[in-house]
Predict the structure.
Amino acid sequence: MARLEVRNPVARAEERSIPPASRIPDLSGKRVGLYWNIKSGGDAALDRVEERLKERFPGITTSRHIGSVGFMMRHLTQEDAEKIARACDAVVGTTND
Amino acid sequence: MVELEKQGVPTVIFTAQAFYHDALQSAQTFGVKNLPLAIVPLPFSNQPPESIRKMVDDAFDQVIAGLTRAAGTPQPAPMLQDKTLGTITCGPMGCEVSPQDAFQIREERLVFEGEDLLDACAVMNREFLTYGWGDGFPLVPPTPRSVDAMLKGTRRPADEVIAVLEPGFGLATVEKIAANAVMAGCSPEQMPVLIAAVKCLAKPEINLRNKAMSTGPHAPMMLINGPLAKTLKINSGTCVLGPGAPSAVNTALGRALRLIMMNLGHTYPGVSDMDTIGSPTKYSLCMAENEGRSPWEPYHVGRGFSTDDSTVTVQFVYGICELYDFSNNTPERLVQVYATATKNVAQLSTGNWVLGRRSDPRYGTQEMEHNFMLICPEHAQVFSKAGWSRKDLQVAMYKAARMPFGTLMLNKEGKALDAAHPELKWLYDNPEVLVPVVEVSDCFEIAVVGGNAGRGAYFWGAGGPVTVAIED
């Protein structure tokens, strides 16, 4: 039996850990942001999300957001994220593809 | 979404099934484990409105759960069934082997057994492929002896961290670079080239995360300039892009860079590299400029280096087509021919500037789309004899490489143009107006490459080039 010893070629990663935001028990009366990264079809998906949220949760309000930089995919800057955080209690986003 | 979670905002994002592992891995890498996802069978792009509505309806409970359920609760990997598509499995190797499992292999020394060493090598290759650590071709085993030999190609200490590579934030130490160089078939004297190439990948302006994680076939093209190209026998002439013996060094270097992106940057197909179709250029794409046959200053001199410097330029590229012309011997006619290569709307980068620029908000970088023209020596002489500089050719290409706005926009999201360039909205009413395919003339990069006869190559680019000096 022959043994071949090799070095592991995979790099260790820098560890990063951020606690996730607390969740909201009830979306009634809350402000929900609808974030679109400009990928095709995402806006149509958010239209439907908006309809369903308003059907289900009394007093819910929605706002639309896209990132201020990018091209066929738009991204949130730090300022964008802070602005959305001030305006929204929760965010639904599209699209991860 | 991670940025919003950092701001204290609970989020959930629609994610196409095929991107499930990619999404979870990305979120974990960026710091948020088990980021809530609302899984849908397909991406929303290319879907009719009624399909999008149905997908949203079917996933709506996941949306509510993502915003209201306790954060950090692992979601079971869904197995979605669609009558038209059949059963969709969870990851690239099915649900039996989690793509994340390979990241748990922490041992620095790995042992494989076989009937003899050749057999053990075959076992190693099979295992490495199962883990996703190889490119599909047989790997040279990174034995301690071969890695130590590779390390002699640089003065840098083995544990020096050259860069932190995205998307996985992998620590690219000299030793890990060496291990992947061995696997690719490189020689020790090529280490400085790879170290410089890794530095290119780590520059914020190359926006590596964007290229490494995309659905597009982004290949890192390497262009070597300076005296070291000759010393290391990096091919710049006949059959420069391979295959074959004349480009053996080119092949090994390009291959090593791909393995480095995978094993140090953690960009693995189906896990974080979501390229839908792949490309042969992703295996290896490396060349030297044919400086001896170029009538112009070397490419890297135009980028601020001296003739005596040796450099690596990395530019991510998409597809390739020829710049073929055996007939014409005037610059104007060559430009006319070249310009036809640029007007391919089915290639993503064509005219993409109208939608904005690639950007990384973390660093405030913005990239224009640059395309690379590898001009053959004969054609370069035609331009030079007519008194044309490289700049003259760039300007001529910018003027010639135009197409009707209506055609340019055939496959582009109009709302992206509205957001990036509202001043161009008048073009919707004037679709016949000719629009340049690139943002500025400098977006045509030009190098003289290849052998005799009038055939060069044109690469559609993704973002712009980055050039770094080769040291030690």
Observations:
- The mean pLDDT of chain A is 95.
- The helical segments of chain A are 42-56, 78-87.
- DSSP finds two helices and six strands in chain A.
